[in-house]
Write a structure and sequence with these properties.
Rossmann fold; alpha/beta; 9 strands; six-stranded parallel beta sheet; 46% helix; 2 domains
């Protein structure tokens, strides 16, 4: 549910650029709600399965120029510019969508450049980062933080509402970018705290399943600690968010802290732990592998406990 009531019945033609794990899940959610959706991905084969669910799969981002709004969820800052304002981007053709909704985690400088260059051709840009992973999407628990021109937000809101349970609007500028970066700083800090406390109780002979069951049912438990518990108990490090991506967000957060004069000592420490883990080869694993690093640093072997763990996510 959003902060602002929505009266739009979703009549718009929508485009989507970027069919990674999250992009696929969110595009599928729009399609399942009957949205007229055209999709583009650099590797077309990743987008083609969406055709079975009603999507139009296009060969070029410029083919999305006739859409009423286009969502982008790509790898990083330069990728966003490439698919939007650079030559060959969706805003470089003879027709251009009036609204771009970007859900990529990017730095403030790139965000300001994107908004300014889009405004030159009459397109409004909304920053709309999301919190969650594909399982969270499937459960209907995804949350969105959005900022940008209010009128564009009100037009896009009925589609953002389809992503999950909550859309929060935080201002007419790029504020949502910083909100998401702060979110990811906390994500890394909590993940590291879980890892080192699991190692500490493990050293005392307590299994992780029991510790996390207690924690999750206490005032310290959260949606995050619950849905990461299967990974921590059974060492399932299939990536939902990799170490290099977490490092990138920590560096964006630390940069913002320096520029605004806000000390971030806990973030700085966890950033160094993540950098060390990347140097030791954790690059392709989920950031939950902070657990294995904590065990190694404590001189302990770690084994999966092979328990059936409730992740707290239903389906929606």
């Amino acid at each position: 549910m959003s902060d602002t009531p929505s009266t739009d019945n979703r009549p718009h033609k929508v485009g989507w650029i970027g069919i990674g794990r999250m992009g696929f899940a969110l595009a599928r959610r729009l399609l399942d709600s009957g949205v007229d959706l055209a999709v583009y991905n650099r590797t077309r084969s990743k987008a083609e399965p969406l055709g079975d669910h009603g999507a139009t799969v296009v060969d070029s981002v410029t083919d999305l120029g006739d859409r009423d709004m286009v969502f982008t969820m790509v790898a990083g800052p330069q990728d966003v510019l490439d698919v939007t304002v650079e030559d060959g981007g969706v805003l470089s053709g003879p027709t251009r969508p009036p609204i771009i909704v970007d859900s990529t985690t990017i730095d403030p400088t790139t965000s300001a450049e994107l908004s300014a260059r889009a405004a030159e051709v009459g397109t409004a840009v909304l920053a709309a980062p999301v919190s969650g992973n594909p399982k969270v999407v499937a459960s209907g628990q995804l949350t969105v933080v959005c900022s940008g021109p209010k009128q564009a937000y009100e037009t896009a809101l009925p589609y953002l509402d389809l992503f999950g349970k909550k859309v929060t609007y935080v201002g007419e500028g790029d504020q949502a970018r910083l909100v998401k970066i702060c979110h990811n700083l906390m994500l890394g800090i909590v993940a590291q705290t879980l890892a080192e406390t699991c190692a500490l109780v493990g050293k005392a002979g307590v299994n992780r399943y029991d510790y996390l069951e207690f924690l999750n049912d206490s005032v310290m438990g959260s949606v995050f600690t619950r849905y990461k518990s299967p990974a921590y108990v059974n060492l399932d490090y299939k990536p939902t968010f990799t170490w290099p991506l977490l490092r990138k967000d920590f560096e964006l957060g630390l940069q913002a802290g320096r520029e605004m004069g806000v000390p971030l000592p806990a973030s700085a420490l966890v950033h160094q732990i993540v950098c060390e883990g990347i140097g030791r080869g954790f690059t392709e694993l989920d950031f939950a592998a902070l657990l294995s690093k904590a065990y190694e640093d404590s001189g302990m072997d770690i084994q999966p406990e092979n328990r059936d763990v409730n992740d707290g996510l239903g389906s929606s």
